[in-house]
Design brief:
By secondary structure, the chain is α/β, with parallel strands linked by helices. It has a domain of 140 residues: 3-Layer(aba) Sandwich (Rossmann fold). It contains 9 helices and 5 strands, in the order βαβααααββαααβα. The protein has a 5-stranded parallel β-sheet with strand order 2-3-1-4-5, with helices on both faces. The N terminus is likely disordered.
Length: 209
Amino acid sequence: MRPSDTLYAACMRLIGLTGGIGSGKSTVSKLLAERGAHVIDADAVVRELQRPGEPVFEAMVARWGDTIVAHDGSLDRGAVAAIVFSDEAQLKALEAIVHPALRVEIQRRIDSLASSDRVVILDMALLTETDNPYGVGEIIVVDLAIEDQIDRLVRYRGFEPADAQKRIRAQAGRDERLALADHVIDNSGSLDDLAVQVDRLWQRISTPS
């Protein structure tokens, strides 16, 4: 384990979970929740912040106009993706709107659990791109070869191959994530293989140190 902020170490155990798009991170997050972890899902928090009427939503519409608003008044995520994943400056603009509000809300949720004895999993795709602002003590990386990421995005999520490659390039590289990992989950096998690895991991992280 790397030295890190130990503000919450005496109470809860705060562990980061990350992995590239299409790696199966969300599946691992669900399996950990089933075993007793409290999961803070950064993507779910972002979706809440981007609901109509929220300041983040209003700021995004002010920046990109009604082209990113769906017919029902909600955010058209596909339209946003088409803008930001083909233009680095636009992606930076989106991050400047979303990330400060996201950081505040995630910290609020962590603080609300600080006096518990829970294993808290911060499920966050961009965890390794940040400078550990939340005091995460350990990092779990869900690992998958890039060609397999692309294949799964195309087969199961309807991505075009070129779009899948753009999304992957917008995130930290595989080697960067693995260099920061305290625990690695290899998701190249079956769901049963994945569950076995998660069981072993849960035994390690749920045992008081």
